[in-house]
Amino acid sequence: MNPISFGNANAGFQFGSNHGPIHISSDRPETPPQTIDNEVLRSLAFPQMLDRRDNIEPCHPNTCQWILEMEEYKSWRSQSRGLLWIKGKPGAGKSTLMVFLHDKLKSLRDQGLWLDFFFTARGTEMQRTPLGMLRSLLNQIFDRDETVRPQVREAYEQRCRQFGYGERKWEWPRVVLEELLASAILTSATQQHITIFVDALDEAGTESAQRLVAYFHRVIDRADKQKVTVQICLSCRHYPIIGNARATEIHIEDYNHEDIATYIKDILADTEVRDGPSQETREVLVEQLTQQANGVFQWAHLVMPLIRQKILEGESFNDIRCWLHEVPAGLEDAYTYILNNVIDDRNREHSFLLFQWVCLAERPLTVTEMRYAMAARHAGIMTSPLKTWEKIDGFVESNERMKRRIKTLSGGLAEVVSSEGSNETVQAVHQSVNDFLHGKGLGLLYQSIGTSTSSMDEGNIHFLCHATLYGSCLAYLATVHIPEELCGVRRVKRDNFERAQKDLVRDHPLLTYATIYLFVHAEKAAGSRADVLSNEQAILQQVFGHWVQIYQIIYPFKSACPPTGTTLLHMAAAANLVDVIESVLPNSEDIAKKDGNGNTAFHIAAQEGHLTVGKLLRKKGANWGAHSPYETTALIEAASCGRVRFVEWLLHEGAKIEATEHESGEALQLAPLGGNQSVVEILLGAGTEINSRSGKFGNALQAAAWKGHTKIVRMLLDAHADVNAQGGEFGNALQAAALGGSIEIVQMLLDAHADVNAQGGEFGNALQAAAWKGHTKIVRMLLDAHADVNAQGGEFGNALQAAALGGSIEIVQMLLDAHADVNTQGDKYANALQTAAGNGRIEIVRMLLGAHADVNAQGGEFGNALQAAAWKEHTKIVRMLLDAHADVNAQGGEFGNALQAAASEGNTEMVQMLLDAHADVNAQGMLIDAQADVNAPGGPYGSPLLAAVHEGDSDQVQILLNAGADPLLSDELDHTPLHIAASRGMLHILCRFSQLASAINKRDKLLQSPLHLAVCFGHIEFAIMLLDLGADPSLPDSYGRNIMDWALEHQTLMLHIRNHCPQIVLTPDETQKLTVRQSILQISDTLLRSKLDSPWRLLQQLGRYFLFLDDVDNARRLLQFRLSQDTFFGIDPRNISCDICEEPITESHFVCGLCVHMDLCSSCVQDYPYHSRLHPKQEHKIFQVPDVPDNESRLTRPASEELSIFLSNLVHEFLSQKTETEPSNDSVFSPAPNKTALVSRTLLGPGTMALAILFGLTAVLLGCWYF
């Protein structure tokens, strides 16, 4: 059972904070393929992925060889395609044989690619479910075969774009993984032999196993059609029946008798005694043991240690043979014998507790966890933290002693195996042991400890055992003390919090398990909780708040983590704790209280399908129609989660529900997402409007088509669903089906007269959706149905661009053959050629050029195909485009030109790649050789040289300077290459390129020289070198400060400054204020008169100036402004990074009135309270930028109305007040009744100047406002 989750999964992530939701951006800079590949592997892997195979002991010497000689095995290996079943009784040795075959294949040469997964029902959820298998197999093939990576990489990137980059908070869906794995297998099989081993398929559960068998047969069928070699070997028990006649079967117990005999002989030989038996007696014993084993290796494995002990104790072989008659031949009877006769009576109570944890824990416990789990039952509920576990009855103080204890308490039925990292986990020695304990073993132990004289059925004993585990978790949580630094998360340094968090988990070994699974065991215990723990509800209420706090500290991003505002009522509804609800409701302030996700207890009961809880809550006054923040009601929640009985009950109470058409329509739309046919039938039977339009998918038919639920689609069509209904994310059902990839559903919709050219939705039309996803057969079907190959619209503009991005050569050729217009414009890449060039599709670029694509076509994000290829570092495509006469100096696009795009990446290894066997040049050099204009302006950096310096790439700087790059060219803030190097402390650039020093005293728009920037950002060595090269330390910046003002407390730098400029003195405060006033006027004039691409920095600086003058109102207004379309060096100005830790500021944003260009995050404001690295004793003059909604703070171009009005009001108020009073010269701002700071005469000078500026503003407001 999974931990209980809260709320619905959304298309993005929001993390709660004291300042409201924090939205994680879905954009990120270009990432090298190797980095993305590593992210893909991590997203697919899980810690225990290899544990089961690694913990299966290798076969006993001289065993398992028989299978290599079997005709069935030889026939399977000789076929190009086929499925081999290895079946056997529980304990027959199937897993050992699978490991033998797997290792044998690995040892052979030229055997192609092999993949494997070993299920284990005793492991974690990923180890026992199809999802874990799919992730593991895809991880392996992605790692070992580069040819399969593009499609998987694209699927990963697509999900990242949808859910946001950064720490991954999404999971791979099973359906997506199935298709990705099948496609990867078939792609890889075109080059090599593919063999897949899947062990213990039955341990995935009957339904899952049957579904996987059908899946593997589909893979084999597709391989047969494509004439590639794919072989699959599965192992499972005889029951449940999950095979079919299409596979070759080998029944292991029919062939392993010799192996069992060999094992028995070797064990007896290793237990030799001086007066041992005769050879004849030994052979008789071996034969008797082999016959009793009856093909079950596990039986021999259990009995032989007992026989070995008897031999060492001096018993004769005849005595042993007589004893063997008492030992049952069946595994289950053998396990019963061990429980009754091998385990010491004194240990039975502890044995019972051990087996409860081994058998019923939600995941295997580590040895350390088991030590505390066994003792937690006796810890009691503490009102204060437990100091000494050693004083608890039964506590085992070391792992080594615990291992010995496990062996003794289990009678050999439990074992310790290695797990992830250095951990060792405890599990049953075989799945048959687990099955036995689940069945009657726990009941036998319960009866044997004298707790009850009567037997207890399987269900009740499970309730009782889960209650025990629940009680242990509850007791353990009560012993945990939360350190103060974790109680107030925002009041401590980030690294201190993380360290305390790790220490908390390390010092409390059972904490993670107890926290995650407390309510899982509570739900499974049902009404037995009180039988194990007296006063359980009072204790639960006492510990509940503690549990919420711990969960939010150690696993804040888990879907099961209780959100802020979660009450015991919410959790009781989630865990079906009816008695708890009855207990807390009379004391509950409000049954309608919502948790942090906006769910009431009634919503949660509907999600989980807890009908009794729902009825109880309704009886106590729960509102049927209460809406969550996602506009969902209990009916919608129950329908989307497939809770049939809950839906029936809600509809039966329809007169009370008074469900609207919207509500029932939304429920009908969401029901197909889970594939629950019964819920759809119920809703239709209740008269729900089948074509009701609402929600993400528009209607039920579109939702079912996208998810690929064929039967539901047929049901909806038979009920007269409108096949051409428009709306929703995908526009219509046909587009949704084309995207989902179901050929059967696409054909079904076409047969129902779906409009193949219907426009709308994310992808414009069905053809574009199918082309992007690479569904070749569906593209052919749509073209045959007369889809318009040149239809425009959608995310990718047209089908050809979508196919170029998706990378399917076959589909691109299919579209070209259907007369797709190769030069059609649209989408962010403008045309198919730019799309293919920017995404590294070499063959598609070649095809498009061959189809007469315009190599110099302009438009799109990168301006032209050459710029897109240069930025993405696709050197072969760059060469291909140049050979096709691409204009190397074409202007436009994000980077201005191709040369600057290539320089901006700074990947020297890629830049230096050989283009062909005869030219030792790089992408940068190739463009220069093609007569690229080395000083071409434009783009986010201003020039190629500026771009190269931004990247700190000395080699590219050298290439550009050798080619005649001008070191004095600057960007729109008048930053030269030397300014950039100074602000980043790039000493290697300054030392190597003396040409850059020609700008040594040049000042930018904020009057900062390179020396100012080096000092302000704390790059002292760089500043000293600038002084030695002739930098003027007396130049004032826009604050009126010279270098001495900034470097006052750095003695070494002060000494250099005085040596170079003895007459330099500190600037008086009044002079600084006067200069800032002049700077405000200058920047305002610049903003009004200049057509800047990125005015955001100047607006922010203007706000800092007002802050410096203590005009908080105007500072706040200016610092809040955002420009919705501007970027600064490719970065959205709304995504600001902290100048200390360099991490994105996702929460509170602070600025300093004394620092130049310094933005700070909340953590660094606390961690580093002093002004820069040069002033360790001077505190920041901190101002928090108010957090306002985007729609209130953004400006849009070309009419930035809010800022226009703001500046206009300043001038207007100034002129109005000037006629009434004359402000004194020492006052910069005068108060106004509306609390808006006014511009004084000191700021604007004579009234004529103010009047001139007013006329300028008026002209701007009439239509000349450009940024």
TrEMBL record:
Residues 62-237 form the Nephrocystin 3-like N-terminal domain. Coiled coil: none annotated. Keywords: ANK repeat, Membrane, Metal-binding, Repeat, Transmembrane, Transmembrane helix, Zinc, Zinc-finger. ANK repeats lie at residues 564-596, 597-629, 663-695, 696-728, 729-761, 762-794, 795-827, 828-860, 894-926, 943-972, 1006-1038. SUPFAM superfamilies: Ankyrin repeat (SSF48403), P-loop containing nucleoside triphosphate hydrolases (SSF52540), RING/U-box (SSF57850). The chain crosses the membrane at residues 1243-1266. This is Nephrocystin 3-like N-terminal domain-containing protein.
